[in-house]
Design brief:
Layout (H helix, E strand, L loop, with lengths): L3 H9 L5 H16 L3 E7 L5 E8 L15 E4 L2 E4 L7 E3 L8 E5 L2 E10 L2 E9 L7 H44 L6 H16 L3 E6 L8 E6 L5 H4 L9 E2 L10 E2 L2 H6 L5 E8 L2 E9 L8 H43 L8 H15 L4 H13 L13 H6 L1 H7 L8 H9 L20 H17 L9 H11 L6 H12 L11
Antiparallel strand pairs: 1-2, 1-8, 2-5, 3-4, 6-7, 7-8, 9-10, 9-14, 11-12, 13-14
Helix pairs in contact: 1-3, 2-3, 3-11, 4-7, 8-9, 8-13, 9-12, 9-13, 11-12, 12-13, 14-15
């Protein structure tokens, strides 16, 4: 006859899927105890709470299951289930370390603590109990406690590794699709400026770039220039430091404002325009110092480096145009996902609205508010790939990573992809897909996660009526410090107190 350890290891660890392993563990415990219903609670990362991880119980409509009151009652708009259910979360208490009987909403249950390496892993609750439980059943269950704790802890570690691997693979796939799409423009320009200085013997230089067509060039890289040069220099084509007229015939720019040149400590500057079909993209300028001179070879080298920078700027503009179009396509996909079911209509826009309201309540910048709005408008787009991933539940768990991988290589603020990737993480470490906690979760992700919670609870779904603002506020207060960042939760509660937390549709 196999020992309890052999039985637990061979039975529980046999299935490949984590959920199946937990289900087998519950079946083993239920059979040993001779009790039909079993619930498994696991300690979360904060070790302050236990969350319901798996249940194996008779259906609410099963006549053999005792129920306190009717199984359902008819209400306006349909039937609402009111069968008793177990809590989804338990606050950890010292008495949980001891095997005992507990009174729950589904009857009196036998609570069995599970330990591994001297630490509480979780609780098994089995029942409902009659007047007396056979001693033989109690003995078999007691023998299983230690091996079950060990194998469940091992299964949980393996599942965490699997989720981390899946997240890494999703990011790798995104990187493979968009590899090389985004090069850091400032780093590239700075490198070419340094090469130009070393090759020509110039003492200093700068590169200025036109951010948008028609705007004045702005210094993006400089070496050896006077302090404050970038803030003081006027590079406008009309009345600025240089005369642009020779550039129309392919010539270099001519120094026009000699007083400004002296004030900015320029000696013998030479500048070439960066043009794309006569459209100014920027300026590359080198200064050879007072009385300095340069030969034809230096000018040739300067033009060569200017050509490289011009090509880079042109490609950056093309990629920016592509990025804008691509992001709009992703937003369209998110909108299409919302239209699949009535209760998800405008979900992304409503989440974006709440996220922006939270950022502003937290005194965030307009740049942060813009980034959160963009993240809100596409945060669940990874669900579009769920059907292509083997195992539906796994696909749902990975949708934040899949969504982030679609845009993380675009020239967008990092907080956008960060928010999408982490909006289902909890500050106590119980979230998914990576189980991050506290400051490991970027502020954008903490804000977006609470915004989505508000919208989902306010909207309702086919099996749950919408919550009113008072209930949502009470739930945010309850989850403050576990699911939600305290500062973000407090901001939401302030908005709720002023009646400003209800989502409104954001204009596209």
């Amino acid at each position: 006859m196999r020992s309890a350890w052999e039985t637990a290891a061979a039975t529980v660890l046999a299935p490949e899927r984590y959920e199946e392993r937990l289900d087998v563990a519950l079946a083993l415990a239920s059979e040993a105890a001779g009790l039909p219903d079993a619930y498994l609670y696991l300690v979360d990362a904060s070790e302050r709470r236990l969350h319901l991880a798996q249940s194996r119980a008779r259906a609410a409509a099963d006549p053999s299951r005792a129920a306190a009151g009717p199984l359902f009652e008819h209400l306006d708009g349909g039937a609402e289930w009111s069968a008793p259910t177990v809590p989804l979360e338990l606050v950890r208490a010292p008495e949980m370390e001891t095997e005992r009987n507990v009174t729950t909403s589904v009857g009196t249950m036998h609570s069995l603590p599970l330990h591994s390496e001297g630490r509480l892993v979780g609780l098994l609750q089995l029942g409902p109990l009659g007047r007396r439980r056979p001693r033989r059943a109690a003995g078999r269950l007691g023998e299983l406690a230690a091996p079950l704790g060990f194998v469940i802890a091992r299964a949980r570690v393996e599942e965490n590794f699997r989720l981390q691997l899946a997240a890494a693979e999703a990011r790798l796939e995104g990187g493979r699709r968009l590899a090389g799409a985004a090069v850091d423009l400032d780093s590239f320009v700075g490198l070419l400026l340094d090469l130009a200085l070393n090759s020509t013997g110039a003492r200093s230089g700068f590169v200025a770039i036109v951010a948008q067509p028609g705007e004045v060039p702005v210094v993006r890289a400089e070496t050896g220039m006077a302090p404050g040069f970038a803030q003081q220099v006027d590079l406008s084509p009309d009345g600025g430091l240089f005369d642009w007229s020779p550039s129309t015939e392919g010539g270099a720019l001519v120094l026009a404002d000699f007083e400004a040149a002296e004030r900015l400590s320029l000696g013998s500057p030479i500048a070439v325009p960066l043009l794309e079909q006569d459209e100014p993209l920027g300026i590359l300028a080198l200064d050879f110092g007072p009385g300095g001179s340069f030969d034809e070879n230096a000018l040739t080298l300067l033009e060569a480096f200017a050509s490289q920078i011009r090509l880079m700027l042109h490609n950056a503009r093309l990629f920016a145009t592509f990025s804008d179009s691509y992001v709009e396509t992703v937003k369209g996909l998110a909108t299409a996902l919302d239209a699949r079911r009535p209760h998800t209509r405008d979900h992304h826009a409503r989440v974006a609205a709440v996220a922006v309201a939270l950022v502003r309540e937290l005194d965030g910048s307009e740049e942060e508010a813009w980034a959160l709005r963009e993240a809100g408008l596409i945060h669940d787009v990874g669900l579009a790939g769920a059907i292509a991933v083997e195992g539906g539940s796994d696909a749902d768990v990975e949708h934040p990573t899949l969504g982030a991988s679609l845009i993380e290589h675009l020239p967008l603020p990092a907080s956008i992809a960060g928010a999408i990737a982490t909006h289902h993480e909890w500050v106590d470490g119980w979230g998914f897909p990576r189980g991050l906690r506290d400051e490991e979760i970027p502020r954008s992700g903490r804000i977006l996660g609470l915004a989505e919670f508000v919208v989902e609870m306010e909207t309702g779904d086919p099996v749950r009526e919408p919550w009113d603002s008072e209930r949502i506020a009470a739930e945010i207060e309850q989850r403050r410090g576990s699911q939600f960042d305290p500062a973000v939760a407090d901001a939401a509660l302030r908005l709720a107190a002023r009646g400003q937390l209800e989502p409104t549709t954001v204009g596209r």
